[in-house]
Design goal:
The chain is 42% helix and 14% strand. By secondary structure, it is α/β, with parallel strands linked by helices. A seven-stranded mixed β-sheet has the order 3-2-1-4-5-7-6, sandwiched between helices. Helix 7 (137-147) crosses helix 8, helix 7 (137-147) crosses helix 10 (189-203) and helix 11 (206-220) runs parallel beside helix 12 (234-246).
Length: 298
């Protein structure tokens, strides 16, 4: 089920003949809603590096929809290759799709004792198994502290190191067993979710991809065009917030020679939009979602 569907698409202020980009196509829910609001001359260019996304394009069966099989970190290059210089709006839902989480062999979830994979693009070489078996203890601790926001990141890293000294960690079940001494007797799902999230972010270089995509999105937007981004992690949200406010993910305010701010976007919603209680009841996975909307300054 698409998260913050109406709120995120409303934020694009869809024009019937406009060109819109969905940088995280996934199941196609957001793209489908954009298409519903477009006229016959409108167009949606969707990005997804997961090969399974092609099936969802076929299911929609709309000639106004074009799928780019690649990462949004190369947004401008892919658009130019398709002779698209400017667009009216860009939407991104930075969460993991239900298909990735619920298909055991993808290795995204601790609910299945499946191979530790977690690659969104299965042509990439490094899997989560390779990561936990080759990264230094210090690097693992950094990953869990930064991307999982875990206070016991160092302990988790040491437990993984101790387990891999005995045998390679190849499956989600083997990783969970290695982590058992760091997990609470009750309520282990929350820390496990954070640990697996941290590994997924590192495997797919998600923060780097977002940092590279945002300035490209600003350049690709027409004057008055909209950017609508749903985040699920505090670091992602901070990066989007900083970019909208300052024009860079670090939050450093740039100024031109006359002292005027150089940020290319301005916030439409000064306060982040959150899922309603009704949406959370229907879709608990939306609980950490935050939506920020910005417009390119004319």
């Amino acid at each position: 089920m698409p998260v913050l569907l109406n709120e995120s698409v409303d934020g694009l202020d869809v024009k019937p003949s406009g060109i819109y980009v969905d940088v995280t196509f996934g199941g196609g829910g957001h793209a489908r809603e954009i298409l519903r609001r477009l006229g016959s001359k409108g167009r949606v260019v969707a990005f997804d590096q997961d090969a399974d996304a092609a099936e969802n394009v076929d299911a929609i069966g709309d000639k106004r929809l074009t799928l780019v099989r690649g990462s949004f970190r190369f947004l401008r290059s892919y658009l130019r290759y398709r002779a698209v210089d400017e667009v009216d709006g860009i939407l991104g839902d930075l969460g993991v799709s239900w298909r990735q989480l619920d298909v055991a062999e993808r290795g995204f979830s601790f609910r299945f004792d499946s191979p530790l994979d977690m690659r969104m693009n299965r042509h990439c070489e490094r899997t989560a198994s390779a990561l936990v078996n080759t990264c230094s203890v210090q690097e693992l601790a950094r990953i869990f502290a930064s991307y999982g926001e875990l206070s016991n990141a160092a302990k988790i890293a040491k437990l993984i190191d101790a387990a891999r000294q005995k045998s390679r960690i190849a499956t989600a079940g083997e990783l969970v067993e290695a982590l058992r001494p760091a997990l609470p007797s009750f309520g282990e799902r929350k820390p496990l979710a954070k640990i697996f999230q941290a590994l997924r972010i590192e495997v797919n270089q998600e923060m780097l991809a977002l940092e590279q995509m945002l300035p490209q999105a600003a350049k690709a937007l027409k004057a008055g065009g909209r950017l609508s981004v749903i985040t699920y992690h505090s670091l992602e949200d901070r990066m989007v917030k900083n970019f909208i406010r300052c024009g860079n993910v670090r939050g450093e305010m740039g100024k031109d020679p006359f002292g005027a701010a150089t940020a290319p976007l301005e916030a439409i919603n000064k306060k982040v939009a959150l899922p309603t209680e009704a949406e959370l009841r229907q879709n608990p996975r939306a609980r950490s979602a935050k939506l920020r909307i910005a417009q390119k300054i004319s």
